[in-house]
Amino acid sequence: MNLSSNELRHLLTTSDPAAIDALTAEARHVRDEVYGRRVFMRGLIEITNHCRNNCLYCGIRRDAHCRRYRLTPEQILDCCRIGHALGFRTFVLQGGEDAWFTDEVLCTLIRDIKRQYPDCAVTLSLGERGRDSFARLRDAGADRYLLRHETADRTHYGLLHPAEMSFDHRMQCLRDLRDLGFQVGAGFMVGSPHQTVDTLLEDLAFISDFRPEMVGIGPFIPADGTPFEHERAGSVELTLRLLAIIRLLHPHVLLPATTALGTLHPTGRERAVEAGANVVMPNLSPQDTRALYAIYNNKLSTGSEAAESLADLRLRMQAIGYEVPVDRGDFA
Ligand code: SAH
User: Fold this and answer.
1) 94 CB under 6 A from ligand 1?
2) Averaged pLDDT in 10-residue chunks for the chain of 332 residues
3) In a domain? residue 327
4) Which residue, by CA, sits nearest to atom 2 of ligand 1?
């Protein structure tokens, strides 16, 4: 659907509950037309919290005094084994930018996962790398790559990241990933410090133009020990509204109901599905490392967002009229 920038501005700022209800109902309808009442699941494996970057918002930034860990390839394969038995057909390997995970280590791991679970998709979310590195990971069999653009506004990007990080490089990574044949995920935090309606309009314009196969958005949540620890969290309502708008702008997009939403609101993920989301990403990381991957405060890790509680998640989704199939959940 084409929405003018004035229409988008109105949808982002209106306080008319009828307008918001109409927006989410339309987003639900559009999602149902493309994907049906199906919510795809991905098993999230947080492979390392070591990171060479120093993003101002992130609880595992280089300067954060958090306890560091990394999973071994054996531990990661174990997570996949448990996940496959639970019915996961996509594994998302996410982590900080950790030089220990060289191309060689990752390619061996990707090949092992694909050999053992040929019916599964492998998604990587390991930050920025060079084009050659992305090409090797793709050749080894990785299917998808999540790299949120964080903000499409260059000035805003500079306020969220240290000077050594580059807006252009992040955007270049997204284009390289696309060229190399990955299904690409972009996205941003809602309510990050210095975000405005205008920067959000730029995010929406970027999404309409680049058309990533996936868009991950969730509220910003302050993380202790970061420069933004005393900033306010983003709004659940605005996040839901943005999910609905993104569904209308890009009907085929895969749109996760993120853990950050579930963290701020007990039924945040159900409400996201009712606003057009169609993906959930339960946590498959080993129990004892989940708390250490603390990108923000109070991140959920033991309730229905945990992979062991799949039955609970399925019931929650069924209760609002959705099934959670055993399926890779590819872009349609
Ligand atoms: N190193 C990878 C993965 C980062 S974690 C990368 O650079 O892509 C995944 C996402 O979590 C980030 O892209 C960011 O949008 C989000 N995130 C980080 N800190 C957050 C916070 N304090 N609140 C909410 N989301 C956060």
Assistant:
1) yes
2) 93 97 97 97 97 98 96 97 95 98 98 98 98 98 98 98 98 98 98 98 98 97 97 97 98 95 91 97 91 87 71 93 96 94
3) no
4) 127
